[in-house]
Every structure is written in structure tokens, then in C-alpha cells.
Amino acid sequence: MAVLLIAEHNNKELRPFTLNAATAASQIDSDVHAVIIGQNSADAAKQLSELPVVKKVLSVEAAHYENFTAENFAPVIVKLAENYSHIVCSANTFGKNLMPRIAAHLDTSQVSDIIKVISPDTFLRPIYAGNAFATIKSNDAKKCVTIRPTSFDPCESTGGSAAIEKIDASEEFSNTKFIKREEIKSDRPELGTARIVVSGGRGMQSGDNFKLITEIADKLGAAIGASRAAVDAGYISNDHQVGQTGKVVVPDLYIAVGISGAIQHLAGMKESKVIVAINKDGEAPIFSVADYGLEADLFEALPQFMEELNKLNTIQK
Amino acid sequence: MKILVAVKRVIDYNVQIRVKEDGTGVVTDNVKMSTNPPDDNAIEEAVKIKEAGKATEVVAVTVGEEKAQETVRKALAVGADRGIHVKVDGILEPLAVSKILQKIVDKEKPDLVFMGKQAIDDDCNQTGQMLSALLNWPQATFASKIDVKDNKLEVTREIDEGLETIEINVPAIVTCDLRLNEPRYASLPNIMKAKKKPIEEIAASDLGVDVSPRLDQLKVEEPPKRKAGIKVANVAELVQKLKNEAKVI
């Protein structure tokens, strides 16, 4: 039986992690179908049909799908599930919210946040904030699997031409009403997919001081991250949080500034290729995962860092 | 309004866990255990709603071995009225826990069920959503703000893109984010008082729920270790290393 991928999108276009989830799905079985549930989402459906790994697209549109409410999405997928061996989507807030609702309806024990497909029924997943890896074999007839997007490369996005089949909408779930979404718009790269991430922690001491980070991020074309302590303190909004209960990032370069390195933060960034820690406490645990540690006062180090970056540019020019 | 709050006993969040040498799991003997952190937020929120006169009773429930009862006792010490301990040994998957909680909901008939958004041991992030599916109730996951309005809740949810606000009709499930509130500490007199509050013990086997695992945990291992890095003397050296050695800028 084929694998069913749940596409994540914003009604206009696919969200980037759909491509990572498609890769994971194709590692389970080469026969991947994808379902897209939305409203006026034909363009996103077309994009989905162009992913070479996707063999067929199932598309359903209705007003009550406009805001991706799990209570409305789950019945559509549960109905489709009889034709599929696996249901797959990303373990981001979209998939975390939705998949368990599907799994419970199917009486299936979900496998969350896998980082590797070992075989169609066996997966590797981090537990205890990534301090242990568990190999899990699912014995359920139908398997519900969420994948850690940063552990799978995005699939090719063009060249495919899967058929798009319209399917029927399910009834509206009337006890949940969407009110609003406050998306923080930014010209910077998305945190989850950025090549470079510059993150600030409690050591930044104020939201204003984050401009030291912003400056460097803009210079490097980097996304801005934060520890939970910095978000809790109100220095920066929650969508920047990196860690066990925030986002997991795997950039080429992660620069942690004024972050002590609690287990929960390390869970979200320690797979980064190169890690830099700037902290005035030489004993801070962040240094244990850093490739390059600089023991310094960040309020002196960051302006110097900016200066050095500017110098590099001058030389290049 | 009656609020049922589910709490789980986990290895304390400050403990650096160790993987067992035989690969069967992590070491739990002589390791400090605590309530799963966001479950503390769930209890706190329920107690605050009761203190605001919008709830009449807060019931704390846990599912697990003998010692799991400590988490219910702690919930009682910070303001829950009574407790329920569903006793069961061995590995419990979120699906099994949600089926047990469904039975408790049938029995207790709460208007709201709160719990943490994720347990920090298995990091599954499933139980609340599964329970809400089984009950066909609305779900507000990753809640960082809850406004109780008659028979509705307005909930702000933390999502990857920022914040989302939804309105859900009661009865409903809410899974709580760490930013929902600041859990209080139990005072000594309240800890003493909590010892007198009732905890009902129920054997999971009496609930008629199949809790047998569906997943085999074949192996638990240490993640690959990062090789030790170096300390640089100054910013100039750092930038040179990033440019010429790591080649990332």
C-alpha cells in the first residue's frame, strides 16, 4: 500500500517542510500520494503535483479548511487512511497538532518526530531532548509517523506531474472557531531552514539589545533564534525559540550569544554543523558543544564581530 | 465548571540522563523525578481559574506506577481539590494513556481537561490531541493564554509562524505551554494540608482498556558525540576561523 503525505501549505503555496516530509515518505515507500486540504488552494495543489516523488495528489477545498484546524482536517485523512499503510507529516506545530488526532481515530500508536527511516516499520527518534536515540518498531497495521524536517533533505520541487484528484469535504467541526493568526513577517530567512542562525539568550538583558544580534544576522543573511529564557523575558517573540519545545534547527553555522546552554536549548541546535558560543561565563555548558568558543562580554564582542565582518567585506571588494 | 488536570511523573528536567549500557532505556534508579514541567503550568492555570471563581473543582489525575502518586500529591499542595491515581506498571504509550483518561472523563464528567503540551521524557506530544479525538472534543494545543468566557474559551496558541487565537466550546481539551503562567511553589502548610486531601486509586485493569504497547523499543543509545571544540582568544581569531577553517562565512 502507498504512503499518504499530508501537505502543509498556506493556501497559496506549500510550506517548505512539506518537501522534507515528502523525502521521508519516499524513504518508507516509493509510492507516495499527497493530500492537500485547504480553501482556494489550487496553486499549492499544483505545486504539490510537481514534486517528482509524489505520484498522486488528493485535493479537497472548503471554507472550513481555510485555517488548518485539526478537528476539521482529521476526518478527511481518517477516511482516506484505509487505502494507505502510512500517514506522514512534519513534526512541527502543524503536524504535532494534527497527527495524534488522526492516530487516535485509527487506533494507532503514533511514532513522533523521527530522524531516520530504518525500514518501513522501524524508525529512529530522539527522546529526552535528544540525549538518547530510540529505535522504534511499530506493530500497528497503519502507521502514523511525524518526521523531524531538519533530519531529511527537501525533495526536488519541479519535474513531476502527478494527477490531481478532487475528493469530498467532510462535515465542519463546529465547536472550534478560528479567530486570528499573528504571523511575524520578516525578510530574513526562516529559522527552520536558514543556513546561518544567530541566537540570543538571557545574557542579552533586554529586547533592545537584540539589535546587536539583528545587525549581525542581516550582515550574514542569517535567521534570528533565541533561548526560552529570552522569549520568556519578553526580549523577542515565541516564533524565534530554539529548543526541546521550540524549533529544531540544523544550520551550517549556529552562533549562540549569551546563552548558557541548558539541555532543553541544546536539544534544538546541537546537530548544527558549526557551533559558535559567545559567553562571559567560561563554565557555561554551551561551550561543551561549541566548535569555537569565545569567552567574552557579548556587549564588547558583538560590535567587534560586526567590525570584523565589515572588514572581510572590504577585502573581498 | 470542573477541570480535570492530567500530570505525569518524569525524570527531573535538570538531570543529565544516562543511557543504560544494555540499550534497554535510560537509568531511572536513584534519579530525581518531578512533575513534567508543562503539567505544572496546567495545574496552575486550573487553580487560577478556580480562584477567579470560574471553576468549582480541580481534580488532578495521573496514570502510572505507585510512585506516580507523588505528582498528584504535589498538585494537591498547589491547589487541586482531590486526586485520582490510575495504577499501572510498565511502558505506557500515549494512546493507552488517552484511552485511560477517556474512561476517567466518562466517570468524572469534567468540562475541561488540561495537561502539558508534551512530556519531556518521551517527547511524543500526543496525549492531549488523542484524548480530544477519542472524546470528539475541541482541542487547543500549545496554549500560552486562556480566557474563560461562560461556556467558551479563547485560547492563544504558540505556533511556528507566531501566535494563533481560537475559540473553543466547552467541553474541551487544552494542552499547556510553559509560557502560560508561572507555577507557584507549594508552601509548607499547604503541603501538610494536601496530605489530608483524598486520592482515589483505580487499577487500570478495572477500566477495561487495552494498554498493551503497540511499539517495540528495540534499542536506546547515546546520540553521536560532538568532537571537542576550541576556545578562541578574541573576535578577530573567531572570524578568521569561521572564514578560513570552517568556511561558513
Superfamily (CATH H level) name of chain B:
HUPs
Q: Which chains make the largest contact?
A: A-B, 90 and 80 residues
Distance between the termini of chain B: 57 Å
Report the end-to-end length of chain A measured between terminal Cα atoms: 57 Å
Radius of gyration of chain B: 21 Å
Which consecutive residue ranges of chain B, at least 5 long each, have pLDDT under 50?
A: none
- What is the oligomeric state here? heterodimer
CATH topology of the largest domain in chain A: Rossmann fold
Mean pLDDT of chain B: 97
Backbone shape of chain B: globular
Which secondary-structure class do the elements of chain B indicate? alpha/beta
Strand neighbour order, sheet with most strands of chain B: 9-8-7-10-6-1-4-5-11
CATH topology of chain B: Rossmann fold
Secondary-structure element order of chain B, N to C: EEEHEHEHEHEEEEHEEEH
CATH homology group of the largest domain in chain A: HUPs
Strand content of chain A: 25-35%
The total count of strands of chain A amounts to: 16
What key phrases describe this protein's structure?
heterodimer, A: 317 residues, alpha/beta, Rossmann fold, 7-stranded parallel β-sheet, 5-stranded parallel β-sheet, 8 helices, 16 strands, 26% helix, B: 249 residues, 9-stranded mixed β-sheet, two-stranded antiparallel ribbon, 27% helix
